[in-house]
Write the structure tokens for this entry.
Amino acid sequence: MKKITVTSLVCIITMLIGCSQPRDIDRAVSHAYKQCVRSNNYIIDFSTLLPFEWDTMCYYSGAYDLEYILEDLHKDLQAITYSDVGPKIYFLHQGHIVYQKGWFPYPEPEKNTIYFDTPLKKFRVGKANARFAVAKVGDCYSLSFIQEE
């Protein structure tokens, strides 16, 4: 009887984990892309994608060093958790960083990662306007910002 109970518990936990929104943005976009394919609508709305409170998203290409980013975000060095190389995104809530992600510029991109396909070296967008067209390019996901007219 214990085997059935443990097995049932493992199945339920696995199902709940699979249904929850992933906290990692790469995994969240990968998961959302599968839904885009099913609905034939390749637009991802970040306002509903991520399971944390935020009001502003900031993107910086690899052209900006940490010193510039820190000044732009009005943050000190302790607020940053990774190196000075590659593109980065920050999600802010009332001026505080609630999520950050950086991608090291490997010669070959890692599988199932995202990248922002934009001529802009940086951009800042509010939660209400954070919509992106998504496309699968090889093993990665390309995100293009949809500017509201």
